[in-house]
Amino acid sequence: MTERTWSDVDLTGVAWRKSSFSAGNGACVEVAPLPDGRIAMRNSNHPGSGAVFFTRAEMSAYLNGVKSGEFDDLT
Questions:
Q1: Per residue in 8-65, pLDDT tens?
Q2: What is the Cα–Cα distance from 63 to 61, expressed in whole angstroms?
Q3: How many Å apart are CA 36 and CA 3, to the nearest integer?
Q4: What is the model's pTM?
Q5: Sign (positive/negative) of CA torsion 69, 58, 60, 13?
Q6: Which among 31, 71, 35 is positioned nearest to 51, based on CA atoms?
Q7: Where are the beta strands (DSSP E) in the chain?
Q8: Cβ(30)–Cβ(22) below 8 Å
């Protein structure tokens, strides 16, 4: 798949989702599935600042690491 920057992708109308564990002040990230199969992620406090994109395999690896506690030292 050709790499594209956030500015090359039209994110109009994608269904952004935020975790129910998000802080009350909105300090959280949002994710959205894209028509090409990738997952977009953005800062919910600055949604216009862009997004980063992950393949489903990349997102799966990341979520498995989160679930197993590999990133607990970051919070």
A1: 788 889 999 988 877 776 678 899 999 989 999 998 888 888 899 999 999 999 999 9
A2: 6
A3: 12
A4: 0.79
A5: positive
A6: 31
A7: 17-18, 29-33, 39-43, 52-54
A8: no
